[in-house]
Write a structure and sequence with these properties.
With 279 residues, the protein is of the alpha+beta class. The protein contains nine helices and eleven strands. A five-stranded antiparallel β-sheet has the order 2-1-11-10-9, sandwiched between helices. The protein has a two-stranded antiparallel sheet with strand order 3-6. Strands 4-5 form a two-stranded antiparallel ribbon. Helix 2 packs across helix 5 and helix 3 packs across helix 4. The longest helix has 48 residues. 40% of the residues are buried.
């Protein structure tokens, strides 16, 4: 355990550019990791934190129409809004204040909410994951990339989380104001209409992160990039991983079809020979 804590502290103290990015492709149908680079490095997760925030907020209260008050400093107009608007702003636009208000709304307040986040991580087997805040601004929010795949897979079981996360844009309004919030991952969502879950993140300590789930022809995969040097590298890495993974699936299908065809020809040839012998 001491070694694990030391690794977490060491990773948190290193800037994102000092480490190569961690990347992962997880095939949900086969339930196995297809590709993983820099897997064993606990890293700051930035706003990927908000995935756990969404889970805990929903587990506490699924009533998204409940009114709440929000002040200045958010992308949401100040005044009375709803938990649903906070939820959408947090997942679509990665609004930090929205996540803080959801945490404060928890029984026992923010501290109890963070404790619930860490209990949930432990229950999911996320040994190296730590949460110190609900937004991801703190460098102390840490995880290994494989544990992030576990979290994303679990979160996507909640339809409201998955469906909200891939909205290209949401409208948030009250009696006085109305704003349109664009998705922080709008480029990949525009490129791949098969994306079923999406969340990005960025801080100076974490670098540029993204976690997505895609489904094509019944094949589901999780693609995660953590610690990219800039937004462009994050986009290019994720896009190339998606293209490569589904190309590999198509290539495997072609090989399987050829193998089946060869087997059928062998069976047909043997069957024809038997007919000649016994005819």
């Amino acid at each position: 355990m001491k070694i694990g804590i030391f690794a977490i502290l060491l990773a948190a103290s290193m800037p994102a550019w000092a480490k190569p990015p961690s990347t992962l492709i997880f095939d949900q149908g086969r339930n196995e990791i297809i590709e993983c680079q820099e897997c064993n490095i606990p890293r700051p997760i930035a706003s990927l934190t908000k995935v756990m925030t969404a889970i805990i907020a929903l587990e506490y209260d699924s009533n998204l129409s409940k009114p709440v008050r929000i002040g200045e400093g958010s992308k949401i107009p100040p005044g009375v809004t709803t938990r649903g608007d906070l939820f959408a702003a947090m997942l679509v636009r990665s609004d930090n204040q929205a996540s803080e208000i959801l945490a404060q709304d928890y029984p026992g307040g923010r501290r109890a909410f963070i404790a619930a986040m860490n209990r949930k991580a432990k229950s999911l087997g996320m040994e190296f994951t730590r949460f110190v805040d609900p937004s991801g601004l703190g460098a102390g929010n840490m995880a290994k990339i494989g544990e992030m795949a576990t979290l994303i897979k679990f979160a996507a079981l909640q339809t409201i989380i998955a469906d909200t996360s891939v909205l290209p844009q949401v409208e948030v309004k009250n009696k006085k104001y109305k704003v349109l919030l664009d998705n922080t991952n709008k480029m990949l969502i525009a490129d791949f209409n098969e994306i079923k879950f999406s969340k990005t993140g960025f801080t100076g300590a974490a670098g540029w992160n993204v976690a997505i789930i895609l489904e094509r022809d019944g094949q589901r995969c999780i693609v995660i990039v953590m610690g990219a040097r800039d937004k462009e590298e994050r986009y290019n890495l994720a896009k190339s991983m998606i293209i490569r993974h589904f190309a590999d699936i198509e290539y495997t299908k072609v090989l399987e079809q050829k193998e089946i065809s060869i087997r059928l020809k062998v069976i047909d040839r043997n069957f024809s020979g038997q007919r000649m012998n016994y005819g």
